[in-house]
Design a protein that fits this description.
Blueprint: H1 11-36, E1 40-42, E2 48-52, E3 57-59, E4 62-64, E5 70-80, E6 83-94, E7 102-103, E8 108-110, E9 121-123, E10 132-140, E11 146-157, H2 166-199
Parallel strand pairs: 2-11
Antiparallel strand pairs: 1-4, 3-9, 5-6, 5-10, 6-7, 8-9, 10-11
């Protein structure tokens, strides 16, 4: 039978709730580094680009990790209607160390720098067949093999669309006209007041 204190609450019940609290804190401390400071890769604010056939395109990707990296593996893959082709891959031994990049496609060039956590690539002389999704993938053994990926979409066009700025021109013209009208009215008002004061 559990003992009861002066307030009437069970001591054993309190002990069990204290054990649960300690267990919860232990789990939070153990899982904290993996959930808060995990590896993240990103293609930046823009996740797609429209480029002309025959041009050269930068496929951006950066990685970050709060606890640092050790033998970080990364690769770029192209998704061609469900079939993935590896464009390049490498292992970065440590923060700031230069990776030895293996390039598997002729028109791909690694332009990143491990000093700035940059694992971007250039795609030279693009064609319509290059249109699609490109995946930047990274895995950090220092975080128990935690991995992350980001997708960048390339759209290849024959010619760039001309931006229709007719609406902008109309808005600017109307605003300019209104401001000009206000200045003329204020000028006339100032002249009328000036002549009235002169007559007085």
């Amino acid at each position: 039978m559990a003992s009861v204190d002066s307030t009437g609450s069970s001591v054993s019940r309190r002990l069990r709730s204290g054990d649960l609290l300690h267990a919860g804190l232990a789990v939070a401390l153990l899982l904290g580094p993996w959930s808060v400071g995990g590896l993240v890769v990103s293609t930046g604010r823009v996740s797609s680009i429209e480029a002309m056939n025959g041009s050269t395109v930068l496929l951006p990707c950066i990685y970050s990790s709060c606890i640092g990296i050790k033998n970080l593996y990364f690769n770029w893959q192209f998704n061609d209607n469900g079939t993935k082709y590896k464009l390049c891959d490498a292992v970065i031994p440590d923060d700031g160390e230069v990776p030895w990049v293996h390039v598997y496609q002729d028109r791909v060039e690694f332009v990143g720098s491990s000093e700035s956590n940059n694992i971007s690539i250039l795609l030279w002389n693009i064609t319509f067949e290059d249109e699609g999704e490109y995946t930047c993938f990274a895995r950090n053994p220092k975080e128990k093999g935690h991995n992350h990926s980001a997708i960048f979409t390339l759209i290849v066009v024959d010619q760039m669309k001309e931006v229709d700025n007719t609406l902008t021109v109309i808005i600017v013209s109307v605003l300019g006209g209104v401001i000009g009208l206000v200045i003329i009215v204020m000028g006339i008002k100032a002249l009328v007041i000036h002549f009235q004061l002169k007559d007085d």
